[in-house]
Amino acid sequence: MTSKLGVVFLGYWVLICSGCALDTLKHPLVDPAEAKPMPELYGVYRTTEFKEGFLNYVHVATAGGDYPPGFLRGVLVGQPRDPKTPVTVRGFVGFIEPLGRYHILHCPFPQEGVLEDQPKISSPPNWKRQDVTGYMAIRLEIGKESVEASGLNREFIVNQIRSGKLAGEVHMGEHPKTGEPRVSNVSITAKQKELRAFFEKHMDAGLFQETSQTYRRI
Fold first, then answer.
1. Would 87 be classed as within a structural domain?
2. Tell me, what's the pLDDT at 125?
3. Does residue 203 lie in a domain region?
4. Does residue 88 register a pLDDT over 90?
5. How many distinct structural domains can be found in the chain?
6. Which H, E and C letters describe the chain, residue by residue?
7. Host domain of residue 54
8. Does 117 map to a domain?
9. What was the pLDDT predicted at 110?
10. What's the predicted TM-score (pTM) here?
Protein backbone atom coordinates (compact mmCIF):
# COMPACT_ATOMS: atom_id res chain seq x y z
CA MET A 1 0.00 0.00 0.00
CA THR A 2 1.13 3.51 -0.68
CA SER A 3 2.35 5.63 2.21
CA LYS A 4 1.44 8.92 0.51
CA LEU A 5 -0.69 11.17 2.67
CA GLY A 6 -2.41 13.54 0.31
CA VAL A 7 -6.08 13.14 1.20
CA VAL A 8 -6.54 13.53 4.93
CA PHE A 9 -9.45 11.32 5.92
CA LEU A 10 -10.43 13.58 8.82
CA GLY A 11 -10.68 16.52 6.46
CA TYR A 12 -13.76 15.05 4.77
CA TRP A 13 -15.71 15.07 7.99
CA VAL A 14 -14.66 18.61 8.82
CA LEU A 15 -15.96 19.69 5.41
CA ILE A 16 -19.26 17.91 5.95
CA CYS A 17 -19.65 19.45 9.38
CA SER A 18 -18.99 22.94 8.08
CA GLY A 19 -21.56 22.51 5.32
CA CYS A 20 -19.06 22.90 2.51
CA ALA A 21 -20.02 21.62 -0.93
CA LEU A 22 -18.64 18.18 -1.71
CA ASP A 23 -18.55 15.88 -4.71
CA THR A 24 -21.31 13.33 -4.22
CA LEU A 25 -23.25 10.46 -5.77
CA LYS A 26 -26.97 11.07 -6.20
CA HIS A 27 -27.54 7.32 -6.10
CA PRO A 28 -25.48 4.88 -4.01
CA LEU A 29 -23.97 1.66 -5.35
CA VAL A 30 -26.30 -0.30 -3.07
CA ASP A 31 -29.60 0.49 -1.36
CA PRO A 32 -28.70 1.63 2.18
CA ALA A 33 -31.27 -0.78 3.62
CA GLU A 34 -29.51 -3.68 1.87
CA ALA A 35 -25.93 -2.83 2.83
CA LYS A 36 -24.23 -5.63 4.75
CA PRO A 37 -22.63 -5.10 8.18
CA MET A 38 -18.84 -5.39 8.33
CA PRO A 39 -18.00 -6.30 11.94
CA GLU A 40 -14.50 -7.31 10.83
CA LEU A 41 -13.84 -3.62 10.22
CA TYR A 42 -14.87 -2.54 13.72
CA GLY A 43 -12.07 -1.41 15.99
CA VAL A 44 -9.63 1.44 16.57
CA TYR A 45 -7.18 2.73 13.96
CA ARG A 46 -4.48 5.39 13.84
CA THR A 47 -2.73 7.25 11.05
CA THR A 48 0.85 6.20 10.44
CA GLU A 49 2.34 9.66 10.96
CA PHE A 50 1.46 13.26 11.80
CA LYS A 51 -0.26 15.18 9.02
CA GLU A 52 -0.78 18.94 9.23
CA GLY A 53 0.18 18.79 12.90
CA PHE A 54 -2.23 16.02 13.89
CA LEU A 55 -2.09 12.28 14.52
CA ASN A 56 -5.59 10.98 13.78
CA TYR A 57 -7.45 8.11 15.42
CA VAL A 58 -10.75 6.58 14.31
CA HIS A 59 -13.04 4.23 16.20
CA VAL A 60 -15.43 2.25 13.98
CA ALA A 61 -18.50 0.38 15.28
CA THR A 62 -22.11 -0.29 14.37
CA ALA A 63 -24.23 2.86 14.00
CA GLY A 64 -27.01 1.64 16.29
CA GLY A 65 -30.26 3.54 16.76
CA ASP A 66 -32.73 3.12 13.92
CA TYR A 67 -30.06 3.05 11.23
CA PRO A 68 -30.23 0.02 8.91
CA PRO A 69 -28.07 -2.93 10.09
CA GLY A 70 -25.33 -2.25 7.56
CA PHE A 71 -24.56 1.25 8.82
CA LEU A 72 -21.41 1.93 10.79
CA ARG A 73 -20.44 4.89 12.90
CA GLY A 74 -16.98 6.36 13.24
CA VAL A 75 -15.52 8.77 15.75
CA LEU A 76 -12.38 10.58 14.68
CA VAL A 77 -10.02 12.15 17.19
CA GLY A 78 -7.20 14.43 16.06
CA GLN A 79 -4.31 14.47 18.51
CA PRO A 80 -2.21 17.61 17.95
CA ARG A 81 1.57 17.60 18.02
CA ASP A 82 1.47 20.98 19.76
CA PRO A 83 0.16 20.51 23.34
CA LYS A 84 -1.40 23.99 23.21
CA THR A 85 -3.64 23.01 20.30
CA PRO A 86 -7.07 21.57 21.25
CA VAL A 87 -7.92 17.98 20.42
CA THR A 88 -10.50 17.67 17.63
CA VAL A 89 -13.39 15.20 17.80
CA ARG A 90 -15.67 14.44 14.86
CA GLY A 91 -17.95 11.62 13.82
CA PHE A 92 -19.68 10.16 10.79
CA VAL A 93 -22.14 7.48 9.74
CA GLY A 94 -22.07 5.45 6.55
CA PHE A 95 -22.30 2.05 4.90
CA ILE A 96 -20.00 -0.01 2.74
CA GLU A 97 -20.37 -1.84 -0.56
CA PRO A 98 -17.64 -4.26 -1.74
CA LEU A 99 -16.45 -3.73 -5.31
CA GLY A 100 -13.67 -6.00 -6.52
CA ARG A 101 -10.69 -5.81 -4.18
CA TYR A 102 -11.96 -2.53 -2.73
CA HIS A 103 -14.85 -1.39 -0.57
CA ILE A 104 -16.73 1.87 -1.17
CA LEU A 105 -17.70 3.79 1.95
CA HIS A 106 -20.89 5.81 1.36
CA CYS A 107 -21.53 8.70 3.73
CA PRO A 108 -24.99 10.27 3.39
CA PHE A 109 -24.90 14.03 2.87
CA PRO A 110 -25.70 16.27 4.60
CA GLN A 111 -24.94 15.00 8.11
CA GLU A 112 -26.03 17.92 10.24
CA GLY A 113 -25.95 16.96 13.89
CA VAL A 114 -23.74 13.91 13.31
CA LEU A 115 -20.47 15.77 13.05
CA GLU A 116 -20.44 17.95 16.10
CA ASP A 117 -17.80 18.76 18.64
CA GLN A 118 -18.14 16.89 21.91
CA PRO A 119 -20.33 16.22 23.85
CA LYS A 120 -22.98 15.83 21.10
CA ILE A 121 -20.76 13.27 19.41
CA SER A 122 -22.32 10.58 21.63
CA SER A 123 -25.84 11.18 20.30
CA PRO A 124 -26.05 10.96 16.48
CA PRO A 125 -29.46 11.67 14.95
CA ASN A 126 -31.64 8.91 13.59
CA TRP A 127 -31.70 7.78 9.99
CA LYS A 128 -33.70 10.15 7.76
CA ARG A 129 -33.25 9.01 4.20
CA GLN A 130 -35.68 11.61 2.92
CA ASP A 131 -33.22 14.33 3.95
CA VAL A 132 -30.27 12.85 2.05
CA THR A 133 -29.22 14.83 -1.03
CA GLY A 134 -26.26 12.65 -2.00
CA TYR A 135 -23.58 10.26 -0.85
CA MET A 136 -19.91 10.99 -0.45
CA ALA A 137 -17.84 8.04 -1.71
CA ILE A 138 -14.46 6.96 -0.36
CA ARG A 139 -12.51 4.00 -1.69
CA LEU A 140 -11.20 1.73 1.05
CA GLU A 141 -8.52 -0.90 0.62
CA ILE A 142 -8.90 -3.07 3.68
CA GLY A 143 -6.00 -5.19 4.90
CA LYS A 144 -5.66 -7.40 7.94
CA GLU A 145 -4.23 -4.62 10.07
CA SER A 146 -4.82 -1.44 8.07
CA VAL A 147 -7.26 0.56 5.97
CA GLU A 148 -6.22 2.84 3.13
CA ALA A 149 -8.68 5.57 2.13
CA SER A 150 -8.79 7.54 -1.14
CA GLY A 151 -11.18 10.28 -2.24
CA LEU A 152 -12.79 10.89 -5.62
CA ASN A 153 -10.70 12.57 -8.31
CA ARG A 154 -12.69 15.69 -9.20
CA GLU A 155 -10.71 16.55 -12.34
CA PHE A 156 -11.26 13.08 -13.81
CA ILE A 157 -14.97 13.10 -12.98
CA VAL A 158 -15.52 16.58 -14.44
CA ASN A 159 -13.82 15.50 -17.68
CA GLN A 160 -15.97 12.37 -17.88
CA ILE A 161 -19.19 14.34 -17.33
CA ARG A 162 -18.30 17.06 -19.83
CA SER A 163 -17.37 14.49 -22.48
CA GLY A 164 -20.72 12.70 -22.02
CA LYS A 165 -19.22 9.51 -20.60
CA LEU A 166 -20.83 9.89 -17.17
CA ALA A 167 -24.19 11.33 -16.12
CA GLY A 168 -23.67 14.20 -13.72
CA GLU A 169 -23.78 17.90 -12.97
CA VAL A 170 -20.82 20.24 -12.66
CA HIS A 171 -21.57 23.30 -10.56
CA MET A 172 -19.45 26.40 -10.99
CA GLY A 173 -18.58 29.10 -8.48
CA GLU A 174 -15.97 31.76 -7.87
CA HIS A 175 -12.60 31.47 -6.19
CA PRO A 176 -12.99 33.23 -2.80
CA LYS A 177 -9.79 35.24 -3.24
CA THR A 178 -9.42 35.87 -6.96
CA GLY A 179 -13.04 35.77 -8.10
CA GLU A 180 -12.04 33.51 -10.98
CA PRO A 181 -14.62 30.89 -12.03
CA ARG A 182 -13.95 27.38 -10.76
CA VAL A 183 -15.76 24.10 -10.12
CA SER A 184 -17.46 24.35 -6.73
CA ASN A 185 -18.89 20.83 -6.54
CA VAL A 186 -19.89 17.87 -8.66
CA SER A 187 -22.93 15.60 -8.45
CA ILE A 188 -22.76 12.21 -10.20
CA THR A 189 -26.35 11.45 -11.20
CA ALA A 190 -25.83 8.06 -12.87
CA LYS A 191 -28.20 5.41 -11.54
CA GLN A 192 -27.03 2.29 -9.77
CA LYS A 193 -26.41 -0.05 -12.72
CA GLU A 194 -24.60 2.56 -14.81
CA LEU A 195 -22.73 3.82 -11.76
CA ARG A 196 -21.48 0.37 -10.76
CA ALA A 197 -20.23 -0.31 -14.29
CA PHE A 198 -18.42 3.04 -14.34
CA PHE A 199 -16.81 2.39 -10.95
CA GLU A 200 -15.71 -1.10 -11.96
CA LYS A 201 -14.13 0.23 -15.16
CA HIS A 202 -12.31 3.19 -13.63
CA MET A 203 -11.60 2.06 -10.05
CA ASP A 204 -7.84 1.98 -10.74
CA ALA A 205 -7.93 4.23 -13.77
CA GLY A 206 -8.41 7.78 -12.55
CA LEU A 207 -11.70 7.72 -10.64
CA PHE A 208 -9.97 8.04 -7.27
CA GLN A 209 -7.03 10.15 -6.23
CA GLU A 210 -3.59 8.57 -6.33
CA THR A 211 -2.76 9.91 -2.89
CA SER A 212 -4.32 8.24 0.13
CA GLN A 213 -4.51 8.14 3.91
CA THR A 214 -3.48 4.96 5.73
CA TYR A 215 -4.88 3.93 9.10
CA ARG A 216 -3.39 1.02 11.05
CA ARG A 217 -5.31 -1.03 13.59
CA ILE A 218 -4.13 -0.56 17.18
1. yes
2. 61
3. no
4. no
5. 1
6. CCCCECCCHHHHHHHHHHCCCCCEECCCCCCHHHCCCCHHHCEEEEECCCECCEEEEEEEEECCCCCCCCCEEEEEEEEECCCCCCCEEEEEEEEEEEECCEEEEEEEECCCCCCCCCCHHHCCCCCCHHHCCEEEEEEEEECCCEEEEEEECHHHHHHHHHCCCCCEEEEEEECCCCCCEEEEEEEECCCHHHHHHHHHHHCCCCCECCCEEEEEEC
7. 9-151+209-217
8. yes
9. 67
10. 0.82
